[in-house]
Amino acid sequence: MAATRPYRSSLRQEQAQQTRRRILEAAAEVFSARGYASASLADIAASAGVSVESVKVHGPKRALLLASFELAFGGEAGEASLTERPEIAAIAALADPEEQLAALVPLIATANARTSGLWATFTAAARDDAEVGAALAGLLERRHADYGRLVDLLAERGMPGAAGLDAAGRRRLADALSFVMSPEGQQQLVGETGWSQEAYAAWLLQAVRTLVRAAGER
Question: From the CB of residue 91, how many other CB atoms can be counted at a distance below 10 Å?
């Protein structure tokens, strides 16, 4: 019996993680389709195929909104930096900053496509719910910190525009990258204007390269 306990514990943990992921994926769909105020825990439970009590374990609703966005955008819920993700770490290890951008920006463009509707729900809910607003502020702060790390990395690799920037210049560039690479841009250009996702991704890469190179001219 003692030998089987670790296995059973590991199996229960894996099943719990799978259930949580299913709940968060369902939450993303429900929030995107119905908005924050109209979505209910019962809606999420029905979509996930679990009980409402199971959903409540991972709630309240604002926690589900934040975690579902983190999962949809970065592949897992939690406050860890995107730079800790294996695929991002592999990109950060590249020696050529142009190759880094060419690998990173399409990943961000795809993540924006996955989350544009959910992001609209998130920002709308933040205007009416102070606690959702606080969660959004924390998310934006982490996003800006990630772009600050990107700017530092590009500068260390000697990319023209980023290299030689002082601290204030690096903050401004991180501000600009956080803005242009946000899900709002994807929603406007693809969802509202009718661009293809491929055209958006190509534009985004060119826009990022232009911003970085122009940063050193200010």
Answer: 20
Task: Domain 5-215: give its CATH code.
Answer: 1.10.357.10
Contacts (Cβ under 8 Å, ≥6 apart) of 217? 161
Confidence of residue 1 (pLDDT cuts 50, 70, 90): very low
Residues shown for the chain:
218
Can you give the residue ranges of every domain in the chain?
Answer: 5-215
Task: Note the Cα 171 to chain centre separation in Å.
Answer: 20
Q: What is the pLDDT of residues 67-107, one digit of tens each?
A: 999 888 877 655 556 667 788 889 989 999 999 999 999 99
Concatenating the DSSP letter of every residue in 111-134 gives HHHHHHHHHHHHHHHHHH-HHHHH
What is the distance between the alpha carbons of residues 98 and 161, in angstroms, rounded to a whole number? Answer: 12
User: Is the pLDDT assigned to residue 165 strictly greater than 60?
Assistant: yes
| pTM of the predicted protein model | 0.83
The CA-atom distances, in angstroms, between 116 and each of 43, 74, 124, 165 are 21, 13, 12, 32
Cα Rg of the chain, angstroms: 20
80's tokens: 């860890």
Q: Helix (H, G, I), strand (E, B), or coil: what is residue 78?
A: coil
Looking at residue 216, what is its pLDDT?
74
